Amino acid sequence: MTAIHKMEGSGNDFIVATGDWADRLVGDPELVRRLCDRRRGIGADGTLAVTARSASTVELVYCNADGGESSFCANGTRCAARAAVELLGCDLRLDVATGWAVIPAEVRSTEVSLVLPPPAGPPQFPDIETAVAVGGITRIDIGVPHLVVRVSAVAGLDLAHLGPPLRHHPAVAPEGANVNFYETDDKARIIARTWERGVEAETLSCGSGAVAMALVVMAEHGTTRVELKPVSGDTLIVDALGDPPFCATRLTGPARFVGEIRLSDEFVASPLR
Question: Is 36 a known active-site residue?
Answer without folding.
Answer: no
